[in-house]
UniProtKB/TrEMBL annotation:
It comes from Streptomyces roseoviridis. Residues 42-67 are annotated as: Disordered. Residues 170-300 form the Hemerythrin-like domain. It catalyses: oxidized coenzyme F420-(gamma-L-Glu)(n) + a quinol + H(+) = reduced coenzyme F420-(gamma-L-Glu)(n) + a quinone. This is Nitroreductase/quinone reductase family protein. Gene3D superfamilies: Electron Transport, Fmn-binding Protein, Chain A (2.30.110.10), nmb1532 protein domain like (1.20.120.520). InterPro entries: F420H2_quin_Rdtase, Hemerythrin-like, Split_barrel_FMN-bd. Belongs to the F420H(2)-dependent quinone reductase family.
Length: 304
């Protein structure tokens, strides 16, 4: 869609709680905001979507959040991938706006992790999309380009509201750490399975990895920008421990890069070697969590 046409749709979507008129009368769209791969600026695109919900109420790949949203990089059947798709390959952290009568203004806004499906998983998801929206099959016939299918997974950590009391902040810190530990456990469990025994395993592991890495990066940016400077002012005697924690964030960022590289070679890696390397990375992260809880929680529980 031309940029000015997109702008009209976006404005109408936001002013009419997702209800569109004209050629889009009756359509249900979402707005996907990505970060420009080259510019670093936000880029919003209206997209059609399909909900993928399993028979047990879970997401199509066993997701605990209940569903995932599927979007297709059709670009109207052109021979070039759309900008939003190239953006999510560079930065999978996205914002989703979707019609929801329960939300203020009729639109729910939440953070998500965007995961591009590959191989047979992509083909299976594309077939699901076409079964609901047959027009995408026509788009695929119009180009030799394989239309990418992207799953959007809501990020639960991004929905937290920062508490105002220090004891509540301590609870928040533990809640975030527990969620991150759960993601580590899910990754470890997934590495114990074989792709032949678990269809879509690679995509699920990549989703867990991307969600984990995105959530931890946001968590650490918040600590570096707000929590640690505050504690350093209130507790100058803890400057050494806080400096160590801030320095460890750089180390954790390296660990996360290694973790993503680890899962990128999931299909060809030796399972035993893969598990051993993952366990090493997990130990480094757990040591960081444990030291932070030891040093920071007492300052929040008993600030005097």
């Amino acid at each position: 869609m031309p940029l000015d046409f997109n702008t009209q749709i976006i404005d109408e979507f936001r002013t009419r709680a997702g209800r569109l008129g004209g050629p889009f009368e009756g359509w249900v769209l979402l707005l996907l905001t990505t970060t420009g791969a080259r510019t670093g600026k936000p880029h919003t695109t209206p997209l059609g979507f399909v909900r993928d919900v399993g028979p047990d109420g879970s997401g199509g790949s066993g997701e605990p959040d209940g569903e995932r949203l599927l979007v297709v990089g059709s670009a109207g059947g052109s021979d070039r991938h759309p900008d939003w798709y190239r953006n999510i390959l560079a930065n999978p952290e996205v914002t989703v706006e979707i019609p929801d009568a329960r939300a203020d203004g009729g639109i729910a806004t939440w953070q998500a992790t965007a995961v591009a499906a590959t191989g047979t998983e992509r083909d299976e998801l594309f077939a699901k999309v076409v079964s609901v929206a047959p027009g995408y099959a026509d788009y695929q016939k119009a180009t030799d380009r394989i239309l990418p299918v992207v799953a959007l997974y809501r990020n639960p950590v991004a929905d937290y509201t920062p508490p105002t009391r220090l004891d509540a902040l301590a609870d928040e810190l533990l809640a975030v750490h527990d969620w991150l530990r759960g993601e580590l456990a899910a990754l470890r469990e997934g590495l114990g399975a074989r792709p032949a025994d678990a269809p879509g395993l690679t995509v699920r592991l990549r989703r867990h990895c991307l969600a984990f890495c995105s959530a931890l990066a946001v968590h650490h940016r918040g600590e570096d920008a707000g929590l640690f400077p505050y504690l350093a002012r209130e507790h100058p005697g803890k400057a050494g421990a806080l400096d160590r924690l801030a320095a460890e964030h750089a180390t954790v960022a390296r660990v996360l890069d290694e973790l993503q590289a680890l899962l990128a070679r999931l299909d060809e890696a030796d399972p035993a070697a893969l598990r051993e390397e993952f366990d090493r990375l997990a130990r480094e992260l757990e040591e960081h969590f444990a030291y932070e809880e030891e040093q920071v929680l007492p300052l929040l529980r008993d600030p005097a």
